[in-house]
Amino acid sequence: MEIILNPWPWYVSGPLIAIVMALLLYFGKTFGMSSNLKTMCTALGADRFADFFRFDWKTQKWNLTIVLGSIIGGFIATQYLSNNVPTDLNPVTVTELQQMGFENSGATLVPDELFSLDALASVKILLLLIVGGLLVGFGTRYASGCTSGHAITGLSSLQKQSLIAVIGFFIGGLVMANIILPLIF
Amino acid sequence: MKYLKFLLVGIFFGIVLVKSEAVSWFRIYEMFRFQSFHMYGIIGTAIASGILFLQVSKRKHLKNTEGRQIDAPKKDKGFIRFIVGGTIFGFGWALIGACPGPMYILLGTGVYSMIIVIIAALIGTFLYGILKDKLPH
Prior knowledge:
Chain A has 185 residues and is mainly alpha-helical.
C-alpha cells in the first residue's frame, strides 16, 4: 500500500500516461485535452460568432466525459491514494522560490500564494490567473494541441509539426520561468 | 454505458497525473529551471512507450474497436502556428503550472481557483476562433 500512497516514480508514471493514449487510440479516439475547450465554447454558443466553432459538439461528448473522469480521478487520488508526503523538490528550487515569496514549496500541489481563495483578494493574483488561462486557451488552439496532443501523441507518432510545437512550449515556458516570473514575484 | 470506458480512462488519467506529481505547479517550475529530471523522465518515458506502442501497432496491423488500423491523427501542415501557438501556450503553462488536463484534475483535488483559469482558457479559445482568419498559420 505504501507504494501506491507515496508519489509514483517517473519511470512508472510515463508509461502509464502512454497507456491512456493507447487506450484512446484503441477506442478509435485520440488523446487531446485542449480540444475540450473548443467543444465547450461551441456547446456554450460560440458557433454563432465564428465558423471555427461550427461543428457538432455532441460528437465530442466522449472527450468531455474524460474531463469529468479526470476531475473525479484528481479527487480520488488526493482523498484516498495519498499520504501527503511533500513533493521531493530540488532544495535549490525551494530556496529560490522562497526568495520570490513562495513559502512551503512542495507541501501542496500548487502554491497557496497563487491559488488559495485568500490570494484571490489580490488584483495582481487574479489577473495572473486570468492571463495564464487566456494564454493556455489561445495558445493551445493556435498550435492545435497541448501536452497530450503534441508532446505525447504527436511525438509518439514522430510528427515534425508536434516537435515544432513542443519546441514552442519550451521557448514560452523557459522565458516565463526564467525571465518573467522573477520580474513578477 | 458507452461513455463508461471514457469515464474510467479519465479517472485513471487523473489519478496518474496526481500521483506522478505532473499536476504540481512546483514540478513544472522545476522543469523549466532545469533543476530536476522528474518531469523529463515522465514525458520521456511516456513518449518512448508511445513510440513502441504505435510502431508495434503499425507492424502488427492492430485494429481499433471500430475495425480501423490504430494510428495517431495527422497534424495539419504549417510552421508559424506551431511555433507561435506553442510559445504562447508555453508562457501560460509555466505561469499557471498546468496544461489543459491538469487544470481539470487540480479542480478535482480541491484547487477551486482553477475555475477562473478554466473560464479564462475558454475565453482564450474563443478569441482564437474569432481571430483565426487574421492570424498567420
